[in-house]
Amino acid sequence: MSKIVPNLWYTDKAEEAAAFYASLLPNSKVDSVTALPADSPSGPASSVKVVEFTLMGQPFMAFSAGPLDAFNHSISLMVQCDDQAEIDRLWVALSEGGKIEQCGWLKDRYGLFWQIAPTVLGEMMKDSDRARAKRVAEAMLKMIKLDIEGLKKAYEGRQRLRANLISSRPPFRTFPPLGRSAARTMPRRYGSSAWSGPRAVLEVAGQRSPNARPALRGRRRVNRLAGTQVRRPTAGRTRVRAETGIAARAVSQIRTKSSSHFCLPNRPSIHGWN
Predict the structure, then answer these.
(1) Cβ atoms within 10 A of the Cβ of 225, count?
(2) Among 149, 30, 133, residue whose Cα is nearest residue 88
(3) Which of 151, 235, 240, 260 is nearest to 190 (CA)?
(4) What angle is formed at CA 76 by the lines to CA 127 and CA 58, rounded to 5 degrees?
(5) Cβ(101)–Cβ(95) under 8 Å?
């Protein structure tokens, strides 16, 4: 039965190259080395070596016949690996003395181009879900040495899901600066254990402290000061609003007394409530 045998033209060291490849790949060997017994354009008789070798069961032939056309990307040998350890081993061995490139390509020390790829890559690229195949292709094009785990993440969409989760997180909300009088009576951190008396959830200009404790319930009382309305709603939290459109900078503090009233820190009450 007829068969195809790839033929490789090396400037020199064809025999050395064949032995090197056979030492790395299973089911591989150098079958024979024969000197060409006649003169040729490449040199006198016996100067050209014809090497027959087998790589992973596939027969090859190689010449050491002097310079002609250099190897290029038009022809490369692809090795399909079952696991990442095999990819790593061949990548290190074949690239030593050569050059590594994008997408699993490399040039060995003899100038021949190789592709070291996982077996699952072809299966992913042929998936009927073309969105999955596209994610795999985009991930592969960003790699140098191919990474099976990275390709699987792209195939399953785990990278995109993580990115969506990160982008969907609400931004951290900061508090507006406080006046000196309020800052003197406030602890360093909102809602921390530095509160004296009952702890409350504080909202300043519509922004709530993420560390605040649940507020106490009680009767609604209103204290107006300089156009600012301070409320204690029965829903269980204190709101500071600016009815005049000016951002509120007052801070309320709940005190437990028999009268259960409100007051602003370091500010007098204008309604006579003590």
Answers:
(1) 15
(2) 149
(3) 240
(4) 90
(5) no
pLDDT tens-digit profile of 104-116?
Answer: 999 999 999 999 9
Report the alpha-carbon distance of residue 161 to residue 115 in Å, rounded.
Answer: 30
Does residue 251 register a pLDDT over 60? no
User: Which residues have C-beta within 8 Å of that of residue 27, sequence separation ≥ 6?
Assistant: 54, 56, 57
Tally of residues, the chain: 274
Name the token pair of 101. 């490139």
Question: Which domains, from first to last, does the chain contain?
Answer: 1-69 (3.10.180.10), 72-162 (3.10.180.10), 176-274 (no CATH)
Q: Tokens 């009927």, residue?
A: 128
* Rg for the chain, CA atoms, rounded: 38
What's the pTM? 0.58
Q: Return the residue matching tokens 């079958």.
A: 31
Q: How far is the C-alpha of 240 from the C-alpha of 247, rounded, in Å?
A: 9
Give 177's contacts (C-beta < 8 A, 6+ positions apart): 249
Checking 13-16 for CB contacts under 8 A at 24+ apart, the result is 13/64, 13/110, 14/49, 14/51, 14/62, 14/63, 14/64, 15/49, 15/51, 15/62, 15/64, 16/110
What is the per-residue pLDDT across 137-155, written as a single tens digit (0 to 9) for each? Answer: 999 999 999 999 999 999 9
